[in-house]
Amino acid sequence: QVQLVESGGGLVQPGGSLRLSCAASGRISSSNIMAWYRQAPGKQRDFLAYVTSGGFTLYADSVKGRFTISRDNAKNTIYLQMNNLKPEDTAVYYCKYDPYGFWGQGTQVTVSS
After folding, report:
1. Digits of tens for pLDDT over the chain (113 positions)?
2. For residues 90 and 81, what is the distance between their CA atoms, to the nearest angstrom?
3. Which SS3 state, helix, strand or coil, does residue 75 take?
4. Among the listed residues 61, 52, 53, 49, the one whose alpha carbon sits nearest the alpha carbon of residue 93
5. Rounded to an integer, what distance in angstroms lies between the CA atom of residue 63 and that of residue 52?
6. 73: helix, coil or strand?
7. Radius of gyration of the chain from Cα atoms?
8. Looking at residue 76, what DSSP letter applies?
9. In which element (H, E) is residue 36 found?
10. CA separation (Å) from 4 to 25, 77, 109?
């Protein structure tokens, strides 16, 4: 079992920045992939970015250039630095751990003036 706890969400004005964190605990595999997704009201959950335990990253086109994923393996934590936020970025942001497909509880991000 792996537990994931996201934090760092909140209310931010358009053009602002936020940094999300996701801390993993439990049976952490030395080889894993951790990812960020988001789900806006009434929409499907969308992939944003992932980072492997070796540091390889991949981004969805929708966030490339604005969002940066990173990780601290010593802390079993990943981060999502989000810059130039837009109202359409408003969603619940989820962390996912693979293998095994564990999800965190999500953290709300609201971009509004």
Report:
1. 999 999 999 999 999 999 999 999 999 888 999 999 999 999 999 999 999 999 999 999 999 999 999 999 999 999 999 999 999 999 999 999 998 899 999 999 999 99
2. 15
3. helix
4. 49
5. 18
6. helix
7. 13
8. T
9. strand 33-39
10. 7, 9, 17
